[in-house]
Amino acid sequence: MAENSHIASQGIVATKRGGVAPDWVLVPLFSILLLICAWRKWLPIDLTEAWGFATGAICVWLVTKESLWNWPIGLANNIFFAILFWEARLYADFGLQWVYFGFGIWGWWTWMFGGRDRSHLKVSRASRVEWLVIAIFIGLGTWGLREVLLQVNGSAPFWDALTTVVCLAAQYLLCRKKIENWWLWITADVIYVPLYASKNLPLTSALYAGFIVLCILGILRWKKELRA
Questions:
Q1: Contact predicate 49/64, CB 8 Å
Q2: Could you tell me which residues come within 8 angstroms of residue 93 by beta carbon, excluding any fewer than 6 positions away?
Q3: Buried b (16+ CB within 10 A) or exposed e, 11-43
């Protein structure tokens, strides 16, 4: 907890010097307003999708800040999106949420105790061996999962398979706090935006467009941590 307290204290000092950081206000405030609009039927948005949007945005925002709170909020996000993707017949994405759930528990523990002498894990870079394994995994995994999705009549077998496998690789790197995880998330998000829009999930599509911005922010923040 000491490392996160130090990061938080740096953020407080920066806020006092330069005013309130925009993302500290905008991300939670927008998420809350969206939930209220969905609950009150002020917007034609499904409440489950709104919860997925809110928890997803806050989770990724917290990851950019290396906050441990991203993990419990991420677990809730997995449940909301599992329901949403089942209804949209995106079965690979549905199954992916439960894999994420397991990764979330492991990642939570790893960030807390995965460093030297069971200390907090620090940001690092992926090795060449890890990249080689990931490349093989993405190629073979996409091919195999596409065949499965064709059998169960998935609505977008290739793109669903590709994004699922890329996200699994990204989640592994995130759990190990490797800075390259952000590049894989961006790759998946660029595909997800038009995919979800075509499945009549406009809010989820917008969420993943926002994720791209947060991923870029995450790269910049984690690079500072890596240099430090």
A1: no
A2: 81, 85, 160, 163, 164
A3: eeeeeeeeeeeeeeeebeeebeebbeebeeeee
Number of domains in the chain: 1
DSSP conformational letter for 123? -
Q: Which residues pair with 124 in a beta bridge?
A: 178
The DSSP code sequence of 64-84 is HTT-TTHHHHHHHHHHHHHHH
Q: Which of 172, 204, 179, 180 is nearest to 99 (CA)?
A: 172
> Would you call 216 helix, strand, or coil by DSSP?
helix
Torsion sign, CA atoms 188, 191, 194, 200: negative
Q: Which of 222, 221, 167 is nearest to 192 (CA)?
A: 167
Q: Is 130 exposed, middle or buried (0-12, 13-18, 19+ CB in 10 A)?
A: middle
Closest CA to 163 of 133, 195, 140, 132: 195
User: In whole angstroms, how far apart are CA 143 and each of 123, 140, 157, 170?
Assistant: 32, 5, 10, 18
Q: Could you give the residue ranges of the DSSP H alpha helices within 42-180? A: 47-64, 70-87, 91-113, 128-151, 157-175
21-74: per-residue pLDDT in tens?
566 667 777 777 877 877 777 777 778 888 888 888 889 888 988 889 999 999
Q: What is the pLDDT of residues 108-152, one digit of tens each?
A: 999 999 877 778 899 999 999 999 999 999 999 999 999 998 988
Q: Which residues of 143-178 are buried (b: 16+ CB within 10 A; e: fewer)?
A: eebbeebeeeebebbebbbbbbbbbbbbbbbbbbbb
Structural domain span for residue 77:
2-227
